[in-house]
Design goal:
heterotrimer; A mainly alpha (368); B mainly alpha (535); C alpha/beta (428); A: 368 residues; two-stranded antiparallel sheet; 15 helices; 68% helix; B: 535 residues; mainly alpha; 3 domains; 6 strands
Amino acid sequence: MIAFFFRKFDRMATGFVILLVVIAILVPVLNLAVPEGSAFHIPTYLVSLWGKYLAYALLAVALDLVWGYCGILSLGHGAFFALGGYAMGMYLMRQIGARGVYADPILPDFMVFLNWKELPFTWVFFDHFAYAAAMVVVVPSLLALVFGWFAFRSRVTGVYLSIITQALTYALLLAFFRNDMGFGGNNGLTDFKDILGLSVQAPTTRAALFGLTAVSLALGFLVARAIVVSRFGQVLASIRDAESRTRFLGYRVEHYKLLVFVVSAAMAGIAGALYVPQVGIINPSEFAPSNSIEAVIWVAVGGRGTLVGAALGAVLVNFAKTWLTGTFPEFWLYGLGALFILVTLFLPKGIIGAFASRFGRRSEGGAA
Amino acid sequence: MSRRFMILMSVLIGWVVLAAAPLRADDASLVLKRLATDNYGDIEAGVAALAASGLSVSEAVLNALADSRLSYRPSDKALFIKDPSGRWIDAATNTAPAEAPSGLKSVKLNNRVRRALEAALGSMTLMSSDPQKRIAAAEAVFKSRDANTLAALDAVIGKEADPVVRRHFEEARAAVLLLKTDAPEADRVKAVERLGERGDQDSLALLGSVTEANATVNIVSAAKLAAKGIERWLALLSTAQNAWYGLSLGSVLLLAAIGLAITFGVMGIINMAHGEMVMLGAYTTFVVQEVIRTKAPGLFDWSLPIAIPLAFGVSALVGLLIERLVIRYLYGRPLETLLATWGVSLVLQQAVRSVFGANNREVGAPSYMAGVWDLGGFQITFGRLWIIVFSLVVFFALLGVMKGTSLGLRMRAVIQNRRMAAAMGIRTPVVDALTFALGSGVAGIAGVALSQIDNVSPNLGQSYIIDSFLVVVFGGVGNLWGTLLGALSLGLANKFLEPLAGAVLGKIILLAVIVLFIQRRPRGLFALKGRAVDS
Amino acid sequence: MNRLLSRFAASALVAGSLLATVAAKAEDTIKIGILHSLSGTMAISETTLKDTMLFLIDEQNKKGGVLGKKLEAVVVDPASNWPLFAEKARELITKNKVVATFGCWTSVSRKSVLPVFEELNSVLFYPVQYEGEESSKNIFYTGAAPNQQAIPAVDYLMENEKVQRWVLAGTDYVYPRTTNKILEAYLKAKGVKPEDIMINYTPFGHSDWQTIVADVKKFGSAGKKTAVVSTINGDANVPFYKELGNQGIKATDIPVVAFSVGEEELAGIDTKPLVGHLAAWNYFQSVDVPENKAFIGKWQAYTKNAKRTTNDPMEAHVIGFNMWVKAVEKAGTTDATPVIDAMVGVSVPNLTGGLSTMMPNHHITKPVLIGEIKADGQFNTVWQTPGTVVANEWSPYLEGSKDLIADWRAPLSCGNFNVKTGKCGGKG
């Protein structure tokens, strides 16, 4: 089993996994054990911030799996991310219990003041963590399964597929904005208190969530890698490069695509679930098509079809966003826009791609 | 008894009775002084009194009040009217005072005063020489249903030569008679029929108020019958009206998408900066109007025709720059154009925000775009009509360029087979640049029209980009006719779903339908045939 | 064109001075956080508030600052992105060490940062009218609660315009939903029949109003005087009003009273067809009192734009900022806990010629003004409450909150005290 995961491991992948394991341990230690004021202390807010980046990185890895290796440009991956986030958010809402402002033991606050009398069926088992955790994976996967089954079977490809994935996430955005849906409308879900009995605001919980996110990213990366280096992954690459030819060779292209799409959606859902307790809010704007487009940009910046690059791109772009919005609040969009233009023009294979070709080393899978 | 009715009654009675015996001058200034206050209730009563006074100056004073040109001097409560040249005129004597009055306060308006003014000015014109004013007066009576106006109406109906005005008078009379319990039954049944013929929402409401309590069985059953007829008619009308709304929404979608049908549909560039080209067109309109407002206010009605070529120029120029600086390096890598143009769109949004500020900018409507055209209850707003016409003109002009000019020929050649076109001596880079500039320029023209119905803000483009892509994909990439049909059918579908499911749910359903439709026809309504489609 | 150029120059100047403040990291300053979106969908409304805060801080520094120290603004851009609001709030408090923050516009942004301010015990001033149903120890709400805006407006229409039929039109989010629930309960209590109330919700940024405006017209032609109460938000207003003008609905036929349309929003519309439509606020730029005249003069001089408008949320920031200065001087420190305690009971002049006081529920007292739109985009005040109105942060018209009160003074110190059970913490 382990050998399967580590087959054809190159130096970059090894380095990446080791790096993730190291920071999964080191960052919580530096945050909790090193006293404040020490040069090595990492403040709590940075822990949550980097936790958020790593959750985004997992989303980027999931997206790179379908885009970089199978040629499915999804402009709706944010939908899977948000659905995972909502599943986690609903669990966290139910954990508030009677500590809400209206002290209703069952109903979340927004239902009380909109005069809801009982919990809608969608919310019923969400007070159990196991159920919520299952839903984090099941709901996005199911959506991906249904959507992908229709789309791949009728051979919707290329830009048509991109646009209908965008339509999908847009429709979900509108649906979740509706207060009648019972997911809190525009205000979304917020003001969480506990996760598994631990306060979400406690530094230890934050550190633990960070560690968990880093480990999840490493695992997600390993799963994605295992897929792409397998025989299955080779078929995916051939679908990406010449779909018709692969079909003529006798492969059931739609099955391959569907499977990888569902796996990717599940990973995106997990990323969303890790994201929500660290940022403290989930709202329909996570479904906005622009969020999904941004995720595509992270992958492109880091390097499409490299997995490591996708994660790197997500962290880099989001770090740039944090830094620029704080330092140049009036001008940061120029910087971000210019970054996207310059990367596409001068680094067509992304940062990792440029790095790899410079040192004459071909990264696995290589961008198309 | 509504307030409006009371005013109207006093006005009409006053007008009939007092017209023959005008007030003396000192009484006149007394009536005028009632307007010299800042209490809305007193102003309202003053308006009614003035209208009833039959003074020769009252129409001028009331008109001045309606236009906020009326002021008073608190010291002696004298009224002054500001004439168009900015001179003050003493309202009581209708002469300019020797020296300009000082310390004036303007007589303020609110909705109640405005309503009183409308009623007063309207009823003063029941015998006006202008047929439009007579119709307005008849409608005022229709709304007030005051039994005391019956005599006056009977008097004017006989003398009325214009059949349209006469119809309005008769309808007003029917509205009065309908609920007049002491009128003969035959007259009231006739009134019911008259209202049934009028057949609008107001008549329906009126007929609904006829019950056994205020009418005989015959009248009630006639009213019920007439109401049913109106309801059927109104249902038909609302379907037609909905189709019109759908057409109008479709034309907006067409405008928003048509430039994209070139840059994305024809060239294959996933142009996320398309919305910003539309936005630039809208801001060009704003700048044109600003210049006209300060330099040549008389040209305001020409602002849109002037803005159209300028918007085309600005957006086409920006498009040309984008193509030369960014996109030309990305041909053959369509998905990467998405990233670069996304960056371009962020930069353009922020640039507009820096120059014009983050707020909405005001773009006014020329006079020919305001107003409604009522075709027997079927209402067409001029603004929307112009936009539909405009979108079709733009569409067919673009079609003409693509099909009928040598540039269009070369464009199509490059799209169908780039290398063959190059081998035939077509300079493909030039054609690419011009095609992108054309698509961007058309988007800019769309911005001129959209500035009339939407916010002119840095976010303008963002709100249309998703819909635009859906229209192009739904219609079939690379086919202008597909874009036309796609836009119109999406507009119609949206408007017929809206009354059934509500605006939000309707849109969600429509999106789901599009997603399912693409499964059935993976290349849109009009798929391009041939080898070019095999990606 | 000159106006445009000067505006460009002005914005460049403001930006330049901003960079300068960032560059000059003087040690001995008191830092104030400004958390308003400068990009994205909310930039339309929030950018002005950022400028207002910079102006207020500048004015205060001219007077010598606070507690002998100069104030320093820290501006960040949360980009209309709600999780980013929480992140930026945390950054302002922990990294930039701001002692108070002025910010947020939408309810969701406030909900997003609320746990951060409570956890890190810092102070937020929230300047926008909202749905109520909240009272946090760390937030001071300087905008109106529903009873300080919506209910007086409805009363006005009932008494002065004799309205009997009501269209409650709003964008589908929490503020309109709650406000309309409150209004519906209130209207029914006043004897309005359910068939005389029409409720309609539209999505954010809704731009095609043809059907809805036609429906309103139809609903309004049933023989009873009809009015529209609009809680339509932001971007959707311009196309809504343009469609009203298009379909020829005049204020004398069906007046529209709006709670989210102020001078800033009207600046983007040709207001001539809208004359007579109403808005309910706690401040209008046209209010004719010396305090307001002086403020507008200084503001226009600061922005170097003689046509720059002012609006209600700006006034809320003016009041909030002045209250904070007073409370800091009273407490002798900028530490959050003493300042929060000192805030309750502080009174400062508002810009409509009265005094506004911070109440124990962390909301302020406000006068309610009803204005009619004039042709020049300003409002003509047609009605005004005689004094100021105290905010009902928990609405008595809602089932869940009718027994709740907030009082942050010791010993109660509770945001949701239940007067029936005598316990802090909701209805339980």
